[in-house]
Amino acid sequence: MAAKGEKQDGLWETVKTIFWALVIAGVFRTLFFQPFWIPSGSMKDTLLVGDFLFVNKMAYGYSRYSCPFGLCPFSGRILDSEPRRGDVVVFRHPVNGSDFIKRVVGLPGDTVQMKNGVLHINGAAVQVTADGQFSETYSRQGPMGHYPRCENAPVGEGGTCTKSRFIETLPGGESHAILNITDGVFSDNTPVFAVPEGHYFTMGDNRDNSQDSRYAQSNGGVGFVPAENLIGRADRVMFSSAGRSLFFVWTWRSDRFFKAIE
Questions:
Q1: Which residues are catalytic?
Q2: CA distance 145 to 125
Q3: Is residue 132 situated within a structural domain?
Q4: Largest interatomic CA distance in the chain
Q5: Residue 153 placed within a domain
Q6: Which strand (E) or helix (H) includes residue 120?
């Protein structure tokens, strides 16, 4: 039978092991990579509801939002590096404190405008090429159980939900897919936005289903994203679950393991 002192020593060793494991995990999460699970369809079809990825926190340097709960004890950014146009970034919402994931389309000093559904940067339309359709099943998706929006609505439960797909090429040559659901809404025709210094203009690839920099913060959007609010760059999907939980391994999508984010 173990002595009382031996039991206490064993308990203390367990506590120390757990403590240091948490410290190491916290340092890893703060300095290198942060896990992120896609909860909504605003970045389809680049990112799907249920995609699980790690955010590269070394890409742009560090701010107070690099620490869990925004607790890093400094302001501004250190080891700062600017995102490139076309990067998919995770950032802290300037008002509500949630983490968002969108694509950077406007850099400091740019003007950005949507005209008839086409993105214009610094007064020039970007190249847009038709690329067929994106199709998915009309059913509840992810932990929130939201139905996808469909260009061919109305669609019954279990039916095929489609959206027009295009390839958009930004200045500098970066290309990615975007989706269209409807025409003529506010998001297709906006005022000219002048991106201030130290800020970025972001948009979702699912253009008619994204609250992004086209919408003021007072209307549920994100407005211009301050550089300090950047958390990191999304580079690669690790795996993806089509079910209500990432732990439902039988719902994992076999074609999305380690998929590069373009």
A1: 42, 102
A2: 36
A3: yes
A4: 81
A5: yes
A6: strand 118-121
What's at 42, amino acid-wise?
S
Position 24 in a domain:
no
Whole-angstrom distance between the N-terminal and C-terminal Cα of the chain? 61
* 123, 111 Cβ separation under 8 angstroms: yes
Domain range for residue 191?
32-260
Token pair 């790690």 is found at 54
Whether the CB-CB separation of 29 and 39 falls below 8 Å is answered with no
- The C-alpha angle 2, 8, 9, rounded to 5 degrees, equals 90
Angle at 210 between CA 147 and CA 219, to 5 degrees: 110
Phi, psi of 225 (to 5 degrees): -95, 115
Q: What is the pTM of this model?
A: 0.86
Is residue 199 domain-resident? yes
Distance from C-alpha of 112 to C-alpha of 220, rounded to nearest angstrom: 19
Rounded CA gap, 90 and 217, in Å? 17
Each residue's pLDDT tens digit, 12-63: 666 656 655 555 555 545 556 788 899 999 999 999 999 999 999 888 988 8
Domain count, the chain: 1
Q: What's the token pair of residue 16?
A: 């120390």
d(CA 222, CA 232): 17
189-to-40, 57, 151, 224 alpha-carbon distances in Å: 23, 34, 18, 18
**Which residues pair with residue 66 across a beta bridge?**
none
User: What is the distance between the alpha carbons of residues 212 and 100, in angstroms, rounded to a whole number?
Assistant: 9
Task: Please report, for the domain that includes residue 216, its CATH number.
Answer: 2.10.109.10
Two structure tokens written together for 231: 């958390």
Reported as a single tens digit per residue, the pLDDT across 236-254 is 999 999 888 878 889 999 9
Q: How far is Cα 57 from Cα 30, in angstroms, rounded to an integer?
A: 8
